């Protein structure tokens, strides 16, 4: 039986419907800045041990919701689960980040790539989605907040698959892009098909909104971004199930460094566009008009400032957007592991408080 959402503010904001206040969630909201997360990760033994165990993934997904009155939960997982399912051998070395044992470098490597069978290779993610939905829902079928599923974008996944790890300059992946665009397009076609299948499986399992993280799209030149990143985001979006259990499933995309291409990103069929902290939110709203909702875009380092500065900067973001539908408050990128949790509490409180005041002022003619 479908659950009844007690708080659907996030979903309504994504669909540009009026809300009583501006909803807020945070990229990487379940993470190392929370001591309880670190305790659970310690019990799991490793990051992958945490991400691949549905019980642990459920536990850490709910941890920030126990601390803060956030308006959405996001599945605890990693964007690199898809290339891991392709057999590239994902591991996380302490202090080094993700690494693939079998990067995609040659024509033969590309020829071996296949879209993975989602149910058999990524069933642990789908089990986590189902488990989180159950944990968010009480005995009467009332669900606290919506659940967001996600994936990396085809281009961002390709960056890790070809580099074999993170990169400062993306020299290996860009060299392939310019020297053998045919190989790059083939990788991106496979990735787009895999990402769409993965997100659709998350939706079927219970994700009520999905997000595409194009973390490295901003590393591309103008003209190249459109051909090698945005084109394949569009290919994913066109394949997605947009309604499940009688409800619309909104789609968000976020290109870090993508402010230059805001209008083009907004035209790719998504419901909302995430913005990093370099973008003027008010001008962004004017640029896209009523086409999409906007998500963002506080500089994450604001959370290291004193509480009064955190609250002032939160108000500045809200005031920049103005009293218009279609805003989901978020950071302009993921929260830092060094962030004091008490500053997050200040932020969430101020976003809710000030956005309610904005709505009330408009209603009273102020």
UniProtKB/TrEMBL annotation:
Protein's pathway: Porphyrin-containing compound metabolism; protoporphyrin-IX biosynthesis; coproporphyrinogen-III from 5-aminolevulinate: step 4/4
Transition state stabilizer, annotated site positions: 78
Keyword flag Transmembrane helix: no
Record's catalysed reaction(s): uroporphyrinogen III + 4 H(+) = coproporphyrinogen III + 4 CO2
GO cellular component: cytosol
Principal EC category: lyase
GO molecular function (one): uroporphyrinogen decarboxylase activity
Keyword Secreted (UniProt): no
Domain Uroporphyrinogen decarboxylase (URO-D): 23-32, 148-164
Keywords: Cytoplasm, Decarboxylase, Lyase, Porphyrin biosynthesis
Residue numbers binding substrate: 28-32, 78, 160, 215, 333
EC nos: 4.1.1.37
A Pfam cross-reference name: URO-D
Subcellular compartments: Cytoplasm
Major localization class: cytoplasm
GO biological process: protoporphyrinogen IX biosynthetic process from glutamate
Cited PANTHER family: METHYLTETRAHYDROFOLATE:HOMOCYSTEINE METHYLTRANSFERASE RELATED, UROPORPHYRINOGEN DECARBOXYLASE
Family: Belongs to the uroporphyrinogen decarboxylase family.
Subunit structure: Homodimer.
Main function: Catalyzes the decarboxylation of four acetate groups of uroporphyrinogen-III to yield coproporphyrinogen-III.
Protein's name in the database: Uroporphyrinogen decarboxylase
Lineage per the UniProt record: Bacteria, Pseudomonadati, Pseudomonadota, Betaproteobacteria, Burkholderiales
Gene field: hemE
């Amino acid at each position: 039986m479908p659950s009844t959402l007690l708080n659907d503010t996030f979903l309504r904001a994504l669909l540009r419907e009026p809300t009583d206040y501006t909803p807020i969630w945070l990229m990487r909201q379940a993470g190392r800045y929370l001591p309880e997360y670190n305790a659970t990760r310690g019990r799991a033994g490793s990051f992958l041990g945490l991400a691949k165990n549905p019980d642990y993934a459920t536990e850490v997904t709910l941890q920030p919701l126990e601390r803060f009155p956030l308006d959405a939960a996001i599945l605890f997982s990693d964007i690199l689960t898809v290339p891991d399912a392709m057999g590239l051998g994902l591991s996380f070395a302490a202090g080094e980040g993700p690494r693939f044992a079998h990067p995609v470098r040659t024509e033969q490597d590309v020829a071996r790539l296949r879209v993975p069978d989602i149910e058999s290779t990524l069933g642990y993610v789908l089990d986590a989605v189902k488990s989180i939905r159950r944990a968010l829902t009480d005995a009467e079928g009332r669900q606290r907040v919506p659940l967001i599923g996600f994936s990396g974008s085809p281009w961002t996944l390709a960056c890790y698959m070809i580099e074999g790890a993170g990169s400062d300059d993306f020299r290996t992946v860009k060299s392939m892009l310019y020297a053998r665009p045919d190989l790059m397009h083939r990788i991106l076609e496979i990735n787009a098909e895999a990402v769409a299948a993965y997100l659709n499986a998350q939706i079927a399992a219970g994700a009520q909104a999905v997000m595409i993280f194009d973390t490295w799209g901003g590393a591309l030149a103008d003209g190249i971004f459109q051909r090698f990143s945005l084109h394949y985001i569009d290919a994913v979006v066109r394949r997605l199930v947009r309604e499940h259990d009688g409800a619309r499933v909104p789609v968000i995309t976020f290109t870090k460094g993508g402010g230059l291409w805001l209008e083009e990103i907004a035209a790719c069929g998504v419901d909302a566009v995430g913005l990093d902290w370099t973008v003027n939110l008010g001008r962004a709203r004017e640029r896209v008009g009523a086409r999409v909702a906007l998500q963002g875009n506080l500089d994450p380092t604001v959370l290291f400032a004193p509480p009064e500065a955190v609250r002032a900067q939160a108000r500045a973001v809200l005031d920049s957007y103005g009293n218009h539908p279609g805003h989901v408050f978020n950071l302009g990128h993921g929260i830092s592991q060094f962030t004091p949790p008490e500053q997050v509490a200040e932020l969430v409180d101020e976003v809710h408080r000030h956005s309610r005041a904005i709505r009330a002022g408009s209603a009273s003619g102020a």
